[in-house]
Design goal:
Layout lengths: L1 H4 L6 H17 L4 H31 L3 H7 L2 H10 L3 H16 L6
Helix pairs in contact: 2-3, 2-6, 3-4, 3-5, 3-6
Length: 110
């Protein structure tokens, strides 16, 4: 979505946290903290992967290359340095909320 519209939406991380938490809660049906830690871990990995894919997609469209060709041509180090260069305070806020949501809502209340 971000690559198609050309606008970075940091709040998508929060949405991702809700999706991960709902999936874990549906499968586990437990209030064990292990599932909360699983929720935050999967949310972190999903956000990292999302930021990586956005940078690859942006580079592919601006360099007139295909997506998979860009993955082969661009190093992971360069991609992550681009991610860090483009971070802003709203990203940190949304990621913090996403990690909380991924943890808190992965466990069944009660």
């Amino acid at each position: 979505i971000t690559v198609m519209i050309g606008y970075h939406m940091a709040y998508m991380a929060v949405f991702e946290g809700f999706i991960v938490a709902f999936a874990i809660r549906t499968v586990s049906k437990s209030n064990d903290h292990v599932f909360g830690l699983l929720g935050i871990t999967l949310t972190v990995l999903g956000c990292i992967l999302g930021y990586y894919l956005v940078q690859i997609g942006t580079l592919a469209t601006s360099g007139y290359m295909g997506f998979f060709e860009t993955i082969q041509q661009v190093s992971i180090g360069l991609t992550f340095s681009l991610i860090l260069d483009n971070f802003n305070p709203l990203d940190f806020l949304c990621l913090g909320i996403a990690f909380y949501v991924g943890y808190r809502f992965s466990m069944v209340s009660g």
